[in-house]
Amino acid sequence: MNCIAKYLRQRILRKYAIAFNEWHSITARIPLLKDLSSTERARLRQLCTLFLYHKTFTGTKSLNISQAMKITIAAQACLQILNLGINSFNGWVEIIIYPGAFRVKRHVTDSNGLVHQEDQSLSGEAWDRGPLILSWDELEHESYQLIPGHNVIVHEFAHKLDMLNGRANGMPPLHPNMPIEKWTDTLSRAYELLNQKIDNFKHSDINPYASTNPAEFFAVISEYFFTAPEILCQHCPEVYEQLKQYYRQDTLQRLNQTCL
Ligand SMILES: [Zn+2]
User: Fold this and answer.
1) How many whole angstroms from 158 Cα to the centroid of ligand 1?
2) Could you give the C-alpha distances from 190 to 45, 171, 194, 210, 236, in angstroms and in order?
3) Residues with Cβ within 5 Å of ion ligand 1?
4) Ligand 1: centre distance to CA 220 (Å)
5) Which string of DSSP letters, residue by residue, matches 229-258?
6) How confident is the model over 147-205, as pLDDT tens digits?
7) Which of 96, 150, 165, 169 could form a disulfide with 173 if both were Cys (CB 3.0 to 4.6 A apart)?
8) Running DSSP on this structure, what letter comes out for residue 177?
9) Exposure string (b/e) for 161-186, b if CB count within 10 Å is 16 or more?
10) Could you tell me if residue 91 is left (phi over 0), alpha (psi between -120 and 50 degrees) or otherwise beta?
C-alpha cells in the first residue's frame, strides 16, 4: 500500500469508526462471529468501517436500511475477507436490499437445447462488476441463528470474490503459493462426485444446489466453510484444505477441531 492510500485508510478508520457499543451489541447477536479472537474482532471492525465507507446500500419497496442492518451485512461479508483485505471487494459499490425474496425473469436452456423464459424467486444475486442484491428476510433469518450450510451473505460475496478475475467460474484469484492445478483438480473431482450422487439419487451432506455449476459449487462450499466446516471437512477434506488456503482462515480450528 502506498503512502497516500495508507493515509486515506487511516483517516477513514479514525473519522468513520463504527461506535464500539453499536458494534458490540450487533455483532454479539451473530453466531458466525462468536469464535473469533479479540484480534480478529478488532480487524473485522476495521474492515467493516472501510466496507461501510466504500459501499452504498439501497432499500427497495420502501425498506429503510438502518445502521444495524448495514453492520449485520458488513460483518459477515468482511469475515470472508478477514485475511484477504478490503481490496478483495473492489470493482463494485452498490448493495440492494429487498424486504423479501425477489422475482427475476431468466432465459434457461433445457436438455433439448430449447430456450425458455422462467420466473425465478431469489434471495440473493451478485452481478459481475454490478450490484449485489440480498433479501433482508432471508439474511436476517440466517444471521441471527446458525443454519449449517446456509448463509446468503457468504454465498453472494463468494460470487463477488470469484468474479475478481472475470466471470464467476468457481476459481477466485488464488494466492501465489496455491497451484492452480491443485485447486482445479480438487474442486472438479468433488463437484463431479456430488453430481454423480445426485444423478443416482444418493444422499449428500452438501446442499444439491452446489451441483448447478462450478460457480455455485464454490459459493455453496464457502457457506459450509464458514457455517459448518465440520460437514465440509467430513464430506471432502481436500476441498476444506483448499478453502482454508484461499480464505487464509482455519474455521475448524476456531471450533477446536482439525480436518486433515
Ligand atoms: Zn449463487
Assistant:
1) 8
2) 35, 14, 6, 10, 7
3) 216, 219
4) 7
5) HHHHHHH-HHHHHHHHHHHT--TTGGGT--
6) 999 999 999 999 999 999 999 999 999 999 999 999 999 999 999 999 999 999 888 99
7) 165
8) T
9) bbbeeeebebbbebeeeeeeeebeeb
10) left
Tell me, in angstroms, the distance from the centre of ligand 1 to residue 181's CA. 24
In whole angstroms, what is the distance from residue 53 CA to residue 12 CA?
Answer: 8
Distance 192 CA to ligand 1 centre (A): 18
Give the 3-state secondary structure of residue 4.
Answer: helix
C-alpha angle 39-43-48 in degrees, rounded to nearest 5: 145
Give the strand pairing for 132-135 and 94-98: parallel
Name residue, grid cell 459449487: 217
The length of the chain in residues reads: 260
Q: What is the DSSP letter of 176?
A: T
CA 137 remoteness from chain centre:
17
> 149 and 207 in contact (C-beta within 8 Å)?
yes
Query: What are the mean pLDDT values of the chain's consecutive 10-residue runs (260 residues total)?
Result: 88 95 97 96 98 97 96 98 97 96 81 78 92 96 96 97 96 98 98 94 92 97 98 96 98 89
Torsion of CA 161, 162, 166, 168, to 10 degrees: -140
- Structural domains in the chain? 169-260 (3.40.390.10)
Beta bridge partners of 117: 107
Q: Strands 132-135, 124-126: parallel, antiparallel or unpaired by DSSP?
A: antiparallel
Task: Characterise 127 by phi-psi region: left (phi > 0), alpha (psi -120 to 50), beta (else).
Answer: beta
